[in-house]
């Protein structure tokens, strides 16, 4: 039997061409429990009762509920995107179904003991974030998120598999939609186990790639890419993207990276990318972007709450915000394009 890392999937080298099969039926179910968590936290905090007498401004609603300023906008707008609240200018109101069935004062309310009993403790951590604004990791043990991830091989591999699950739909869409014919090399910054460069290289034989990540990611990256027959077209470079030089490449990719950090650090990373790229090179950022109107992409807003829960300073953002950071970093012609499900990419040129 070949050696495997604990938690590794069975060896399989077959793959579907980019764009043919979307993982969305699976990922939508994965996100379903976060929709439930947000609903339960809204009930715990008394959102629907607070709005039963009429609309309130964001500040008034936040003050009434005791919600911390940091997660408040994402929480309220997630309820809008889920169809539970309406937002008109700066005022929030119960959506018709919420006014009818989620007001605890009404005799036909859906809020009852059985709702919480079916999901005991499910919303506790999210409700604590909403009240304190404090990330779970810092509150629990004081360790940096990535120090915890890199504590042992099992946690590293589990994190890498999670990143592949989050990224695979986007990776296949990027392989299809980005104009790779005009480039020869790419570097995936924060590559995890290499799902993004693997899908691109499988679709574009003329390309080679570098994966850049913390040293603990090397084994998983090399095993994953070798399993797909790409060992001769990829290299792994260990480093810290805040302190070490980024790899030389025609295209630098940041996938689900910027949302780990506060805005000032996102700008730092994009400036480092601008310095590393050749003239005419491109930066490609893909995330579960929040739509610019903050009304439609519920999963982007839910993921922003997850990031605030897990990582001090983390949150998701809109395409318009990303365009501003790219322009400030020196890039030109930023554009946003939808990828798969709730995911989009932002591309800009040096």
Notable features of this structure?
350 residues, alpha/beta, Arc Repressor Mutant, subunit A, Rossmann fold, 7-stranded mixed beta sheet, 3-stranded antiparallel beta sheet, 15 helices, 10 strands, 46% helix, elongated, disordered N terminus, methyltransferase, O-methyltransferase family protein, COMT_dimerisation, COMT_C, protein dimerization activity
General description of the model:
Residues 142-331 form the O-methyltransferase C-terminal domain. GO terms for molecular function: O-methyltransferase activity; protein dimerization activity. One of its GO terms (biological process) is methylation. This is O-methyltransferase family protein. Residues 29-102 form the O-methyltransferase dimerisation domain. The protein is α/β, with parallel strands linked by helices and 350 residues long. The chain folds into 2 domains: 24-134, Winged helix-like DNA-binding domain superfamily/Winged helix DNA-binding domain (Arc Repressor Mutant, subunit A, Orthogonal Bundle); 145-349, Rossmann fold (3-Layer(aba) Sandwich), CATH 3.40.50.150. Helices cover 46% and strands 14% of the residues. It has helices spanning 24-45, 47-50, 58-65, 69-81, 96-101, 113-118, 124-132, 136-141, 145-149, 153-177, 195-203, 218-227, 263-276, 298-310, 319-328; strands at residues 56-57, 85-88, 91-94, 185-189, 208-213, 234-238, 251-255, 282-287, 332-338, 344-349. The strands form 2 sheets. Strands 6-5-4-7-8-10-9 form a 7-stranded mixed sheet, with helices on both faces. The protein has a 3-stranded antiparallel sheet with strand order 1-3-2. A hairpin with a 2-residue loop joins strand 2 (85-88) and strand 3 (91-94). Helix 4 packs antiparallel against helix 14 and helix 10 packs parallel to helix 11 (195-203). The longest helix is centred in the middle third of the chain and has 25 residues, at 153-177. The N and C termini lie far apart (48 Å).
């Amino acid at each position: 039997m070949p050696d495997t890392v604990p938690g590794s999937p069975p060896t399989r080298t077959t793959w579907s061409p980019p764009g043919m099969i979307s993982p969305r039926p699976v990922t939508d179910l994965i996100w379903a429990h976060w929709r439930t968590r947000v609903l339960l936290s809204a009930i715990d905090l008394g959102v629907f009762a607070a709005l039963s007498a009429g609309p309130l401004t964001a500040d008034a609603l936040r003050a009434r509920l005791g919600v911390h300023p940091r997660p408040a906008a994402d929480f309220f707008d997630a309820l809008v995107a889920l169809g539970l609240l309406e937002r008109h200018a700066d005022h929030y109101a119960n959506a018709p179904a919420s006014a009818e069935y989620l007001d605890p004062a009404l005799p036909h309310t859906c809020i009852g003991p059985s709702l919480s009993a079916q999901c005991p403790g499910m919303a506790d951590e999210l409700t604590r974030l909403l009240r304190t604004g404090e990330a779970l990791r810092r509150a629990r043990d004081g360790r940096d998120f990535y120090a915890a991830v890199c504590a042992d091989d099992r946690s590293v591999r589990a994190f890498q598999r999670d990143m592949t699950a989050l990224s695979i739909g986007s990776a296949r869409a990027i392989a299809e939609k980005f104009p790779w014919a005009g480039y020869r090399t790419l570097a995936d910054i924060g590559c995890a186990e290499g799902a993004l460069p693997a899908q691109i290289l499988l679709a574009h034989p003329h390309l080679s790639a570098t994966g850049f990540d913390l040293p603990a990611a090397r084994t998983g990256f090399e095993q994953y890419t070798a399993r797909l027959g790409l060992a001769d077209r990829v290299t792994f470079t260990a480093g810290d993207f805040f302190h070490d030089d980024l790899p030389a490449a025609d295209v630098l990719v940041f996938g689900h990276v910027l949302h780990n950090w506060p805005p000032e650090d996102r700008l730092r990373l994009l400036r480092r990318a601008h310095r590393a790229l050749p003239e005419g090179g491109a930066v490609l950022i893909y995330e579960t972007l929040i739509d610019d109107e903050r009304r439609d992409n519920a999963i982007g807003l839910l993921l922003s709450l997850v990031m605030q829960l897990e990582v001090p300073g983390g949150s998701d953002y809109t395409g318009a915000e990303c365009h501003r950071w790219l322009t400030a970093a020196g890039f030109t012609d930023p554009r946003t394009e939808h990828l798969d499900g709730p995911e989009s990419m932002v591309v800009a040129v040096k």
